Amino acid sequence: MEIDTRMGNMFTEPNAKYDIVASHIRKIDVQLAQTAESVKRQQGTLPGKTDKNPRTEHSIAPSEPAETPPVRDYVPKVPYPIPPKHLMDPISPEQLAGFRKMVKLAFTNSSMAVPYGTIRNLHFQVGDCVFHTEFQVVEMRKDHVMPLIFGRSFMATVGAIVDMPNKRISFSNINKKVFYKAVPTRS
């Protein structure tokens, strides 16, 4: 008999708790419906009275135009270098020829040469492509092997692909299948 009472109590206690929770949920549903009806308002309007922003009420804009300060020259605290006037004069062709003698070209084999001049806008053909290039004219021995050094702009234009292990170069924008042998340089 004692077991039957315990089993009966075990069933009635959770059942009573369930009934209490269910009644609370029903009350919340009723309150929610009442609140929704009382809050119904016209669409597009805000509830209550709007307040003005106090910052805009107290802002004072000047009614008369302000005076512009007088213009004054800027004087740097530390004087910057001013080049001499003779350096500002245009360079004559005679002076330019003298400057060209001071220019020396360095080659990959560490030799130096003074160029005689520059050939500008020379048409250079590799395969089917023609390029406009500039060459420096230098004097060289007839039996002397001097490798041709390509500049970055030329290599970018022809799409140069350098194969270092096989010591060869290909121009992908001209013909990918043709490889040119690299000439070793002395250091």
Written overview of the protein:
This is Aspartic peptidase DDI1-type domain-containing protein. Among the domains are: 32 residues; 88 residues, no CATH class. A 3-stranded antiparallel beta sheet has the order 5-6-7. It has a two-stranded antiparallel ribbon with strand order 1-2. A two-stranded antiparallel sheet has the order 3-4. The protein starts with a helix and ends in a 6-residue tail after the last strand. The protein has 5 helices and 7 strands, in the order ααααββββαβββ. It is an alpha+beta fold. The relative contact order is 0.06. The protein is elongated, with a radius of gyration of 46 Å.
Describe the global form.
Answer: elongated
Instruction: Give a short account of the largest sheet.
Output: 3 strands, antiparallel
> What integer value in Å does the Rg equal?
46 Å
Structural class: alpha+beta
Uncertain regions: pLDDT < 50 for 5+ in a row?
none
Order of helices and strands: HHHHEEEEHEEE
Adjacency order of strands in the biggest sheet? 5-6-7
Assess the beta-strand content as a share of residues: 15-25%
- Helix share bin: 25-40%
Q: How many helical elements?
A: 5
Q: Output mean pLDDT.
A: 76
Ends apart, CA distance between termini: 112 Å
Quick one: how many beta strands?
7
InterPro entries: Peptidase_aspartic_dom_sf (IPR021109)
Region (Disordered): 36-74
Biased composition (Polar residues): 36-45
Protein name: Aspartic peptidase DDI1-type domain-containing protein
